[in-house]
Amino acid sequence: MSVRSILGAGPSAPRLVRGVLVLLLLALTVGCAGRDGRQVERASLPSGWHGEQGQASFYADRYHGRRTASGEAHDRNALTAAHRSLPFGTRVRVTRLDNGRETVVRINDRGPFVRGRIIDLSRRAAEELNMLGQGVAEVRLSPE
C-alpha cells in the first residue's frame, strides 16, 4: 500500500507528505536540544587540554535547586561543578594540592567568574576535598 493510496491521489498529496516529513524532522531535531532550545554538549575534552591549576570554591547552599547553565537543577549532594569553558558532561579529576584529596566531578554549569578561581564545586565535592571550613582551596584539574 502506498502513501498516495492512503492519502488519496489528489494534487495536494505530495505537499501533505512533505509537510508531515518536515514536521517529523523538526520534532526529531528539537528532541536533541536542551530545555531552553540550545544543543546539549556531550563529554569530550578539548584537544590539547591537559588540565589546569588554580583555586576552587564551592556553591553556597542557596543555589540548591536553581537551574544551572546546562538546564539541570543544581544538586548540592551530587558530584558536579561549574567551569568556564569545558563542555557540559565532561568528567574532571580535582586534586587538592595541600592535602592530596581527590574527587571526580561532572561539569554542568558555567563559572566561577571570580579572578583566580578555575572551578566551582558542589557541596559534596567540597566535602570530599575537605574544604568546607576554608571555602577556597588550591587545586589541580586533570582529565578523567
UniProtKB/TrEMBL annotation:
Residues of the RlpA-like protein double-psi beta-barrel domain: 53-140
HAMAP family linked to this entry: RlpA (MF_02071)
Protein name: Endolytic peptidoglycan transglycosylase RlpA
E.C. number: 4.2.2.-
Gene3D superfamilies noted in UniProt: RlpA-like domain (2.40.40.10)
Function: Lytic transglycosylase with a strong preference for naked glycan strands that lack stem peptides.
InterPro entries, sorted: RlpA, RlpA-like_DPBB, RlpA-like_sf, RplA
Family stated for the protein in its record: Belongs to the RlpA family.
